[in-house]
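During the reporting period the student researcher (J.K.) took over the structure-prediction task from the postdoctoral fellow and processed the backlog of single-chain submissions. One of the processed entries is reproduced below for the supervisory committee.
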Amino acid sequence: MENDYNEKGAYYWLLGEFEKAIVCYQKAIDINPEDAKAYHNMGLAYCNLGKFEKTVACYQKAIDINPEYASAYYNMGLTYYNLGKFEKAVACYQKAIDINPEDAKAYDNMGVAYCNLGKSEKAIACFQKAIDINPEHANAYYNMGNAYYN
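J.K. obtained the following structure tokens:
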């Protein structure tokens, strides 16, 4: 049954009906309070509504349930980045990378956060790592060019 609520929530999320998605994810959590995926997905829905404190709380709960939830760390990093909390974003991306060392997007985004912190050398190293992992990751090339330019 809880899977049904997760799937129904995902359906509403794809339609852009984020409040309805949250209701579904909450029902999944009511059935199984240890459903890390439901918390993560609810965080995604709250993010789309611009409710960032709730977003972070959902991701944190998903991580508390499953400390190896790389996507929750990654998405929390995105949220902190969008809030201008670049140090926290870097820490989240690093945790995602510790769990999934082949995540080129996490390296790329960590590099962008480093750029915003004025740490160009660290940023360039992140972009290079993203390119090493995925030579077709165009954003990493673009971001590296900006890092060299700045």
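The committee noted the following: The mean pLDDT is 96.
J.K. will present the remaining backlog at the next meeting.
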